[in-house]
Every structure is written in C-alpha cells, then in structure tokens.
Design goal:
It holds the Pfam family Glucan_synthase. The structure is a single chain. This protein has one domain. The protein has about 160 residues and is mainly α. The chain is elongated. The longest helix is centred in the last third of the chain and has 29 residues.
C-alpha cells in the first residue's frame, strides 16, 4: 500500500519517467539534503531545518506521548531521540543521533529514487506509460510526443 502511494505520482505523470527530469530531481534533492541548516533557514531549503521542524513538537511533549508515537512509527529511533533531545543535546551523543537520522533519511531517499531512475533509464517504459495514459488519443491518431515536448505542428 505504501509503495502505491509513493510511486503513483510517477505512473500518472506523463513526465514521470523522463530521464532529464529524474536527474534534475536527484540534483535538487541532494542539494536539499546537503545544505547546512541553522537558525532562520527554512525547512524547504535543507534537511536539517526540515528535520528539526518536523520533530519540534516533541520538545513540548512528555516522555509517554513520545514513546507512544515511537511505537507506532517506523522511525522509532528518531522519535525517541527527539523526545530525549533536551536532556542529551548538550552532550556529544546528539551529533551522532542526528548523523544516524540523516543517514537513514538519505538511505530511504536512495531506495525510493532507485526504481524510478532505473525505469526512467529505459526508454521503452516511458513509451509504454505514454501509450497507456493517452490510449484514446492514440486511437484517434493524435501525435502525443510533440504535445508533451511543447512543440506545435503546423499543417
């Protein structure tokens, strides 16, 4: 079920398997992951700011509510770390926890990008996707590729 939610946007987007767009997305995502966070940096600009904003509500919640959320989350380690953050932030352990969380998120991003990139690398997949999405147009003998490329055909 989770795979369906994650990959459906690529299946129903005519440009979802265009290699150039996948490379651009990968570049933008890597830039976002590697930008340095800090005070005043927006969550859409770097991973560190996003991670801190995503877990900021744990600074005001109790240990029991944090443990309850950790037990229902696949990122249980990260949730527990955020709950304990006020107590361990001044120690060197916090930097290690943040590095592990970064590695986890980076690894999951790679796992999600890999099948999309593999499918985009094969031109036949994009052709099949276009054919399936625009089957009625093909039946009426419309030329879809120039439309998707933004070219107009003058007769």
């Amino acid at each position: 079920m989770a795979g369906t939610w994650l990959f459906t946007p690529f299946l129903f987007n005519p440009s979802g398997f265009v290699w150039r767009k996948i490379v651009e997305d990968w570049t933008d995502w890597n830039k976002w992951m590697n930008n340095q966070g800090g005070i005043g940096i927006q969550p859409d600009k770097c991973w560190e700011s996003w991670w801190n904003a995503e877990h900021s509500h744990f600074q005001h919640s109790g240990l029991s509510s944090g443990m309850r959320e950790a037990s229902s989350s696949i990122q249980g380690f990260q949730v527990i770390a955020q709950v304990l953050r006020p107590k361990i932030e001044c120690t060197g352990v916090w930097d290690t926890i943040q590095a592990v969380a970064y590695a986890y998120d980076y690894g999951m991003g790679c796992v999600l990008f890999a099948p999309i990139a593999a499918l985009a690398w094969m031109p036949v997949i994009s052709a099949i996707q276009t054919r399936v999405l625009f089957n009625q147009a093909f039946n009426r003998q419309l030329h879809i590729q120039p439309i998707l490329a933004g070219k107009s055909k003058l007769r």
